[in-house]
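To assess whether ligand presence alters the predicted conformation, the chain was also submitted together with coenzyme A. Input:
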Amino acid sequence: MIELREATIEDREKTYKWLYYSDFSGYLNKLGGITKETIPSYEYYKKEEYMDFYFDDSQPEKGRAYIIVCRTNGKIEDVGIISYTSFHLLDKITEFDIWLKGLSYTGHGYGTKALLRLSGIVKYLGYKKVIIRPSKHNKRAIKSYQKAGFVEEDFKPENYYLADYIPKYSDGDYGHGADVFMVLTL
Ligand SMILES: CC(C)(COP(=O)(O)OP(=O)(O)OC[C@H]1O[C@@H](n2cnc3c(N)ncnc32)[C@H](O)[C@@H]1OP(=O)(O)O)[C@@H](O)C(=O)NCCC(=O)NCCS
């Protein structure tokens, strides 16, 4: 059973470790052009990647993070993080990001269930579309997003991004043309 709970500031450091220092991080970092030497510091993560508002409800219009919680046979375990981010996008559009805490947690349907849960939450908040941009090499992520209802679309930044953010964000996390642009219509 998968549930989402609102992430708190105390959760932030472990989500950093899951992202940059778990057993899938080498693969994911490589896709993002990140080497051991250039892994962002935790200070950078706090200031530029997962800022306070994701954890403290101060600016829900900009975004929020949730911890993916798994309950099996009476055992409760935090198994990943999922978030929505909206500050860089046009009205009623948001972007998801998700990662689990390690490779052994992948492939059990947790990610897909978490995506479906967060889709319900952002629909309730009034959003109409969700975007997500995995690397085109990350077949497991693409499959999971398809199972959650995301569909690949030709990328036209002006249809999704606020003009001011197009220069900074339109290439995505993996460089120009290296991702799959996927959209979920709510
Ligand atoms: C991406 C992620 C959140 C997806 O969550 P998940 O719980 O693993 O996803 P699911 O188990 O629901 O679905 C994965 C699907 O991919 C399939 N799959 C796994 N490896 C695959 C591969 N190499 N090629 C094609 N499909 C693959 C699985 O069989 C499964 O499909 P199925 O249910 O039809 O069998 C999770 O794998 C993860 O955290 N990965 C590491 C971090 C990451 O890549 N984050 C995404 C950045 S954009």
